[in-house]
Known about the structure:
The complex is a heterodimer.
Chain A: H1 26-36, H2 39-56, H3 58-61, E1 68-71, E2 74-76, H4 78-86, E3 108-110, H5 145-181, H6 183-198, H7 201-211, H8 216-226, H9 229-243, H10 246-253, H11 258-294, H12 306-315, H13 320-348
Antiparallel strand pairs in A: 1-2, 1-3
Helix pairs in contact in A: 1-13, 2-5, 2-13, 5-6, 5-8, 5-9, 5-11, 7-8, 9-11, 11-12, 11-13, 12-13
Chain B: H1 2-17, H2 23-27, H3 29-37, H4 42-58, H5 65-77, H6 91-126, H7 131-145, H8 148-159, H9 184-222, H10 225-232, H11 237-274, H12 280-289, H13 293-321
Helix pairs in contact in B: 1-13, 6-7, 6-9, 6-11, 7-9, 8-9, 8-11, 9-11, 11-12, 11-13, 12-13
Amino acid sequence: MASPPPTVVAAPGVVVPAAAPERFEGQWGTIWRNLTRNPPALAGLYTIILLFIIAAGADFLANNKPYYMVYQGRNYFPLIRSGLVRFGLAKWQPELLNMDFKKVNAGRKVFPPIPHLASDIDLSAPFDSPSAEHWLGTDKLGRDVLAGLIHGSRISLSIGFVAVGIALVVGVALGALAGYFGSWVDLLISRVFEVMLTIPTFFLLIAIAAIFPPSIFLTMAIIGFTSWVGMARFTRSEFFKIRSLDYVTAALALGVSTRKIMFRHILPNALAPVLVSVVLGVAGAILTESSLSFLGIGVPLEAVTWGSILNEARSATFAWWLAVFPGAAIFITVLSYYLVGEGLRDALDPRLRGTR
Amino acid sequence: MIPTFIGITLLSFIIVHNAPGDPAELMAGGGLAAAGGAGISLQKRGAVDQALAEWRALYGLDKPLHVQYLIWLKNLARLDLGSSFKDSRSVWEKIRERLPVTMKLEFFSLLLVYAVALPLGVFSATHRNSIGDHVTTLAAFVLFAVPVIWAATMALVFICGGDFLYLFPPGGMTSIDYSLDWPLWERIKDQIWHLFLPVVLLSYAGFAGLSRYMRSSMLEVLRQDYVQVARAKGLAERVVVFKHAVRNSLIPQVTILAELLPGLIGGSVIIETVFSIPGMGQLGYEAFLARDYPVVLALLTITAVLTLIGILLSDILLAAVDPRIAFGRRAE
């Protein structure tokens, strides 16, 4: 929509203040500006971005196939080809089939910085302490810990996001219904909140995860379905507040449909406070997932996750590297989300700064 | 409370009973279950099926789900939680062995949470923006983010007699040679030595979180007019803080008690598994893996009841610290 040029007609004698060409930044703009002025929150945000880059590039950071290789006078790009093969876009060259790239006698090999996969078993090197070959040591099957951490970041980060996505949908839907309609709907849904709050969620989670066959998707789903209460309560109280504002009454008077009022008019204004619990929820989901895989439930046995590597330290207390590094990875991730969450809380209401 | 209780038990019941994996086959032992799947003769297959059906009938698993639930509720009213699928012992008896252990852990953890968090919060608030405040606030924030699985494993590796220090025992509730013949002091010392790490690990997140709550609620109270009035009257700062401000800032902390409990119970599963403490968490973990429905259900119910009691307790405490809240009686 083209906006007409602003015309300012000044009455004689009235001083018109120099019109600052200020752009209306909106609610989210303010939040973003406040957030980026908060160094700890920014540090957390950068760390999370870095973690996502690591997770996305895991195959290029830690892989047992070289980027580039000269073999019998010809150039090969095994890592890229392995990706193409996985998506069915190419086939392996017959001479490279089943090749052990580490041992093969080739003219020139350029490996990724960590030349191992998380699942590479090397029974000749169990419990190797950190060395030039294995930067963060190996576990009881000789699997490289750093490679495990890099590839495990995918599971942690994706579980955080999917679980919180589920929780957000369930929580916002129930919270919106309770807050908008009030009366018996609210009463009923609030009862459900109460049950979910009283139930020892982690206990229930272990029960479900232990009873059903282990799968990452199930873990995501049950974490999501047991962690929506916080978001639902925030949404409910926001809807309560906003429902009685004049602009909603105006919309009602204009005959706007209930659905449109809820989703178009109230929801966007109710989401900001929920955002804090979303960010903290991601941290919670990552913690829960790693606790579950630490107990050996939730994810398949052969999957290498931060929690499962940490679990190995319990039965091999001499291998300190199995305790230090995976735990540190969980800690740094969780701390980063907490920093961003805290920053968001301050950004939403700068008056709160320093009171928490 | 009653609807909440019904809701919780119903939810647990439905989840537990809809789980894949038939306890009858698990019960029947690997051999029979494997035989049931493998290509054995039809005749034998029939015998296997009959045995499984009989077993299901014995435990009432052949009835429709809602009937099973009602039977379970009826038995619960008589405190009969059924008997374990695993060793046929009464569930009530099994839990009675484990409950004191977990209660002990949880009680001392709660005690520690409040004993550390409240003074720390008051200190932070009264010394706002001092170095001490910044250090405690930062420490609490970082501590809150330390995953308990990491802290527990690090403790196990570095200070529980691995290749490093041997400051605390790697597990159990008592020493191997512990006996009631020991002098009382020795017994208490042994208990403290064993309980110290689990209790600290179970509660550090709690006191880190709670001290931040306490600080903010204390700051809020200190800003209020009546605190100014108290100061203007010439009361000593000590009296203003401890007699006037702390009491009011305690009110929100009491309600948090109810929210701390489910977390503690969840944490006890991890701590009890890592330090092989024979408590309810460990019992639950083993029962979950063995699909021991009666035990799983009983544990979910008991933990829910404990949490409900916690909520009730915090309501009562709330009335005690906040005279404005009365339960109906003094309504006039």
